[in-house]
Amino acid sequence: MQLRVHPVLAVLLSSFTGFGIAISTNSLLVEYLRWRARRNHRLAQQAANAAQHQESENDGANDNNGTRQQGHDANSGNNAV
After folding, report:
1. Model pTM?
2. CB neighbours of 53 closer than 8 A, spacing ≥ 6?
């Protein structure tokens, strides 16, 4: 089977096809990079929130330990708080 296409039409069709493939590939690449940036930002934000939450829990536990250690000890002669 042989296609009989005018040479000018063949060049135009191949140009449009190549241009369409290039634009589509570029669009896919840009969307992927945007998705990856959003994902990395969200993961970093979640990690920072988790670290901050864990730090605040640890500070609260340390504060509780500190208040337990302070106070009056009847056996020590020093009852100043």
Report:
1. 0.57
2. none
Which pair of structure tokens corresponds to residue 11?
Answer: 């060049």
Instruction: Write the DSSP assignment of 32-55 as a string of letters.
Output: HHHHHHHHHHHHHHHHHHHHHHHH
In b/e form, how buried is each residue of 9-24, taking b as 16+ CB within 10 angstroms?
A: eeeeeeeeeeeeeeee
Residue type, 61: A
> Which tokens hold the place of 71?
């106070």
pLDDT 10s digits, 18-28: 999 999 999 99
